[in-house]
Queue: 4 jobs
Job 1
Amino acid sequence: MIVVDANVVIHLLMGSGRQVGDETPAPGERAAELYASDPEWVAPILLMSEVRNVLVTLTRHGRLGREDASAMVADTRALFEGRLATSPDREILGAAIDLGLSAYDAEYLVLARALGVPLVTADTFILQAAPEVARPL
């Protein structure tokens, strides 16, 4: 079991994104490998709003169709079936204030700490603020 944030989920949904001739695994490939190695992903309920927001932005910019965006939301909901959680407001506020994170990012961190599992992210602020819990994608 691991906690993942929205950027990891978006990378998984969007696929490889690898450029021709590039041998370095793209974030989408790393996300797929992560899911294959540990498919029990957990996240705060906030994840759904963040994923929807990114997909709306991609749709508005013509990078994604409406039907694809809707399908990706459904895929995300299925991926996290029964594994979207809440954390105490006091702990989220405390972590955000103490570590200089947004309250959104602190939700993921507090959940990972509560479950005693890593938080996998591509967010450098989280990685720097909480190296004891956060792991790079």
Note: The chain has a mean pLDDT of 93.
Job 2
Amino acid sequence: MVIADTGFWLALANPRDSYHKAASDWLDRSDEGLATTWPVVTETCHLLIVRIGAHAQQSFVRSLRQGAAEMAPPNADDLPRIEALMAKYADLPMDLADASLIILAERLGHGRILSTDERDFRTYRWKRHAPFENLLAI
């Protein structure tokens, strides 16, 4: 499973996005599954409506229903870690979606991610020291 961030989903949905070709090419050549979190899904839906329109949000939700990615929910037990991560990376700042992806990386035991947010995912660490490997970096 490779972790998918909001920017990856937005790039797939928008042919004018500078990462669209990289995202599409990765999806075409990979046989690995994707994992994301509910905060990422929420953020993606919001941005799809704002940037592209309701039809894009509906297509995204349909793709998830059809198995485009496994979705991991953060739970109440994750809140202390989320709060600590947001405090640690307050200078960026870190949002809930990004914090949830660090927790997902820790659960999966790897930091392989598809993200257009190169600066933040070069900075973030999972398991407090391990860097992310952004497979979408161009």
Note: DSSP finds seven helices and seven strands in the chain.
Job 3
Amino acid sequence: MTFFSGFCLQDEAELFDEYLNLWRENPYVVAGFSYGAIKALEYTLSHHGRIDRLILLSPAWFVGMDRSFVRQQMIFYKKSPEKYIQNFYRNVSYPTRIDLSGYAKESPAEDLKELLGYAWQEEKLREIGRKGVLLEVYLGAKDRIVDANRAHDFFKNYATSYLFKPFGHLLR
């Protein structure tokens, strides 16, 4: 399996064992968490080899956010990356208290700008289907990072999309 990590994270795939364990040894599966879901989708679209399944875990969904929100996030990040990331980790782990410090990684402001501005396009998801790739999306309704309900409404038209009511961004 090829796994793409979330913003300011690395090697966090183990947090999603219940979703990924079955596919861990399968070289034809691509998965990504949050920001990594964007990278996983783009990789799958550009990859010319065989891919059977694409798994998007809490995809970074900021479609429809106004530019002032994005601008504000960028200002806060640039002003104090440490404080921004600490708050980000708290929101990612909600409603649990999972300590993400063991998965911490510095990410440039450009990554944050990319994930906040990414446009999930219907045509890209249709192309995934035309390539014969099974698409699965997992979302938590208590997510403090993305609007999981709106994301689920979008993805369910192109994928098997699961919305778990008691879970947050980490799908716990």
Note: The chain has one domain: 2-164.
Job 4
Amino acid sequence: MAETGFSCPQTREQVINMYFLEHRAKLLDVAAFLDRLDRARPTASNVDFREAALNEAVRILVDGQPQRAKRILDLLSDSTTEIPQSAHGMKGASGAVRGNSGGAS
């Protein structure tokens, strides 16, 4: 009888063997970005909404709860249905939603 509840055909060891180094590099890249933020001079007294969203995403990443990717994507996605106003000085999306990061502004 097959086990239920596991949707990945690989074992945990197989997944680690295949993907560990790639994701180790990504974590180091995120850590370097956060270190760079720590060393940068602040431009305002409040935290930028993108920084707040990233900090909340990191909390989700390590909370051990299921569906981390979905929850982080939901956090960083704009679910409004209205037509967006053009972003002053920007060519595209900001990658996070203002006011959508756990109450931080």
Note: The mean pLDDT is 84.
